[in-house]
Write a structure and sequence with these properties.
This protein is an alpha/beta fold. Strand 2, helix 2 and strand 3 form a beta-alpha-beta unit. Helix 3 runs parallel beside helix 4. The radius of gyration is 17 Å and the shape is globular.
Length: 254
């Protein structure tokens, strides 16, 4: 996909997308760069992918900073934003995309640590660099956003609960952010075809993706959903700070 955002709409802006070496994050940072933004690619352990993407975006004429960081480690997060400050001196768009919790071999509290605590840690570390007119986007799923009213698959429930906890904690900061002129939007999508989460869910619950696709009529793929995330960074902030992507008829509102 190209021309997701109007050409030049992010000229002179700096955007950071967490977890942007692959998947939704990589496509999101690509769309922001195509619209003119200089970008920060953040990864945890996919340095070669991150560097390959950086080369592609530099070919567009963008300045690109690649920073490896473990978002659950406050020291690592602080070092990432020190690097952003040194390179760019500011940040105009922060997309909180990185999440997880279904990986094997992680500590019992890993999902909450990454999906709630780390999201707050990253936003708070970024705040000194965010000025009037800046935008923050939190990426989530309908299964997490609506978890308080609509049950999800047991395999996904711990992740869904932790992501909703992260969303709630971030939403508490909206008044403070608004006071500084910083917009905040939650972008929530249905299951996304081709993501790691969808693959893990399918492995744990064979047929789950096809069943959801049939129920919803359509599931977005990675690049289509990333386009909505990118638009969430530039479109006017919705009155309820929520951009719902895809079918929500199976989910009960609170």
């Amino acid at each position: 996909m190209t021309d997701v955002l109007p050409a030049g709409s992010l000229d002179g802006k700096v955007a950071l997308v967490t977890g942007s070496s692959r998947g939704i994050g990589a496509d999101t940072v690509r769309y922001l760069a195509q619209a003119g933004a200089d970008v920060v690619i953040n990864y945890r352990n996919k340095a070669p992918r991150a560097e390959k993407l950086a080369g592609e975006l530099r070919d567009l004429g963008r300045r690109v900073l690649v920073v490896g960081a473990d978002l659950t480690d406050p020291t690592s997060v602080a070092e990432m934003f020190d690097a952003v400050r040194t390179e760019f001196g500011r940040l105009d768009v922060l997309v909180l995309n990185a999440s997880g919790g279904m990986e094997s071999g992680m500590a019992e509290d890993y999902a909450l640590s990454l999906n709630r605590d780390a999201q707050l840690s990253v936003l708070n570390a970024a705040r000194p660099l965010l000025e009037d007119g800046a935008r923050v986007v939190f990426v989530t799923s309908h299964q997490a956003h609506f978890i308080r009213t609509t049950p999800t698959m047991p395999e996904y429930e711990p992740v869904a609960l932790s992501k909703r906890a992260g969303e709630d904690a971030l939403r508490e900061l909206i008044p403070e952010l608004a006071e500084k002129g910083i917009g905040f939007t939650v972008v929530s999508g249905d299951m996304i075809e081709g993501t790691i989460t969808a693959t893990l869910l399918e492995r744990a619950n064979p047929g789950a993706i096809a069943q959801r696709r049939e129920s919803a009529g359509k599931l977005y793929n990675v690049s289509e959903f990333a386009a909505e995330v990118a638009r969430g960074a530039v479109d006017p902030v919705p009155a309820d700070n929520t951009r719902l992507v895809g079918d929500v008829s199976a989910f009960a509102s609170e």
